[in-house]
Each structure stands twice: as C-alpha cells, then as structure tokens.
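User: Hey, my collaborator sent me this sequence without any context and asked if I could get a structure. I don't really work with proteins. Can you help?
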Amino acid sequence: MKQALARITLALSCAPFTLLADCLSGTDVAQNATVTLFEQMSYVKRQTSLWQIEGKNPYTRNHFFNDAGINIASNCALVDNVLNLDFSLYGLTWYGARPLGTFEESDRRSRAILEKLRVVYSISDQMQLEIGKLKPKPGLFFLRSPAGLISQYYAGFKPTRLYDPQLRSAYQTSPWAATLSAEDREQALSLSVVPKLSTIDKRYLSSSAWSDTQRGNSSEAWLLSYSSHQFRDHTPGVRVLLGDAQSLAFSDSFTYTPQVTFKGEVAFHRGQRWRHLSDQKRQELERYQFPSSLYSAEDKPGVEVAAGGEYTTDNFSLYGLEYYFQSEGYSRSQWQKQRELVRFLNTRTGFDPLDRGFDSYKYLMSSEISNTGNKGMLQGKHYLNAWASLQAGGQIRLQPYLVLNLVDTSSLAGLHVSTPLSAVSNNLEAFSGIYAALGGAESEFALFGEAVGMYVGLKYYL
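Assistant: No problem. I've predicted the 3D structure and written it out in structure-token form, which is a compact way to encode the shape of the chain:
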C-alpha cells in the first residue's frame, strides 16, 4: 500500500513545473488565497486538583495568556478542470504572563500546523482522487460522532489554545492519506486509505509533543463509506473500517420539517477505541512491582450510540440537543479505581527515589487521560450535549454550549460571542467568551481541578 501511494504521488509530482509555478504565482495566490490573522488574550483560574507533584499543585492557580496566529489557505488549478491544489496552513505562538505549573510546561512556544494539503484529480464528472494531508470527514454530531471512525490526536499547545470554534478542526492532526470517491444525485461512495508511517513510543508525553506522523499516521486504516440520497427525507449511510482497528457504523439524518432535523448514529467496534487503565497493572503498582505501562487497549467488542436533533428558527438561529453513549466508557467502580490509584501515588513516603517514581507514574497517568481527550474521546458512558447558535442584534452571534456527564454530573459549559467590527474595518471581527469545567474533585471534567476561563480576541481577514 505504501509503495502504491508513493507511485501515485510521484506521478502527480511529474506535472510540468510551469503549471505549478502558474498556480502559485503571486497574482493567482492573491486571487485565491485567504489570509486570517488572530490575536487573543485569556485568563484562566483553576482550583487545586487531585494531582500533586512533589506535594504541590501541578497547575498555576491564576494565569494570563496571549495567543497569536495566522492562517493561509488557497485553492488553485494545476490543470483546469482536472488537477487542483488545496492547502491550509496555521502558524501559532503564545506567551504566558506567569510561570507554568509542572503539568502545563511545554518546550514549544511556536508551532506550524499543516491542516490540509490536497492534490485533487478529477477522473470524471462524478469521480475524483485525493492525495495528501486530508481531513477525515466528520459524522453528524458535535460532541462525539460514532460514525467518525478515523480519529486523530490534538496538535496544538499543551497549556493554551485560541478559543475560536472555527479553529477546532485545525487542532486535530490530519493524516497523510488517499481517497477515491464517486458521487451522483442518488448516492456517494468513497474509499480512504491511511498508511501507518510511525509508532507512538512516548505515551507519557502529551500528544502535542509527538511528531505529526505519530499523531496522524500511527495506525493503518481502510475506510469504505456509502451514503444514499434517494430518499426525500432520509439520508442513510454506512461506513466500514478495516486495518489496525475494525468497526462498522450506520447513520441517518431525517428531515421532519424544513426547520426540524433528527439524526442518529451507531457503531460497532471489534476492539477498544482508546487506552484504559489496566486492573492488573494497577494492582502490581500498589504491590510496589512497578510495571512499565498502566494503560492498554484490549480486544473487547464495544458499541457507540448517538441520537439528537436540531431546530432552526425563522431568523436562522440554531438549537441542538445530543445524547451519546459508549459501552467501553469507565463505570463508576472503574473510575473510582483510577482515582484511588492517584491518591495512592500522592502518598509521600519520605524515601526520595520512591517518591520520584510515584510522581513519574502520575505524569504517565495524566498524559494518558489527557490524550484520550486529545483523540476526541470521552471517558464515561453517558453524556448530554446542548448547544445553540443565536443571531442577536445586528450581526452579533452567540454560541452557548453545555456538555454534561450524566454519571458524575460534571460539566463543561461556555459561551462564545463574535461580531464584525464594520465601524473600524469590513475585514475585522471581534470574539470573546467564557467557559468553565465544573464538578467534584474526582469527576471527569474537574479531575484536574475546576477551571473557569475568559478570553477576548480579534480576527483580521487580509
């Protein structure tokens, strides 16, 4: 498979250089490129967390951050109506006003993220081939979509991010892949191939510290997708995933009225989708046997289910409600065992080598838990997600959201506000917001300490 992809890439690279030069000429880029500048200031307040490193809280209680970024995106024709080049690149940097806690430390203050780099070959009016760094097609749901069978890891900074919903997809690494698709008025069919180019060998680090290929191409995947447009009110679909993981997903979107849409997805998995705390390894550690790893993904079958609906008002405000369930999520007792292990490791023995070893295990545990979220996964079984996109006075848009863990009642809530600053410039947009992770000290969303943050920023379109 790797050799086939290499041959196709080489063949496309043999296109006359004059065509590429013309596509990327200054005039062409000026006409097709979109350049967006970002600037943001944010404040985060955290409560003391369950975790302790050297007997101290691993987070700075009150912190100020400054973020800046640039996005350059373009789409141009290498050969008219036959061969296209499409790319999107982010450059990001940040600065913290105060020293970072041990769980927040990051060696990198600047980062480039290649969100997308596609070469698209139109085989016919209904068939095309895409090769490059491709964004996986999302499912129907915002919180967690069971039909999104290819999941990638978070690529941004460990302590901070730009809190703009439009940037959420850019922070998830896009894999190097190839997709062959065919579509007409009645149906769509595609085959995507993601080669394995790397292996994750440092799971004790945040995924933001891994290489790009580790985040995007650490497993082999073959994804076959089919959707039908033959029905007036329903859009059913099926996806089959083969390779290092095997899954089968079904989806449907039902338009009840022009303003009301219901949707549902279900997925069946042959093995676990994310790494779980091993009972055996946990018991070994509590007997001071010091295993090399505490987490693993086992060959246990599982199921994911999501159901929800959306309502659109006459002024194009949008309301959504979603329910999500996963059979492999931690039960109350399993989550309790993980919390008890953290308490055990927090015990100070007075013997420095042992205390340092316990701190190292806490680093490993926190990274594994964080990277589960970095992969877009949740750790519990039952969730409710409510969100809206409201058109207020003028061009002001309000985007409130609430994610609730129905088992431990912890929550993640926020409000994002954006508005063009037409009085200053037609190319300038302001955004602001507030968010909170609330719950008991041992709950999912507050396991690392309850947090409240606020931010304000600007976007400028060149």
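In plain terms: The radius of gyration is 23 Å. You can pass these tokens on to your collaborator as they are.
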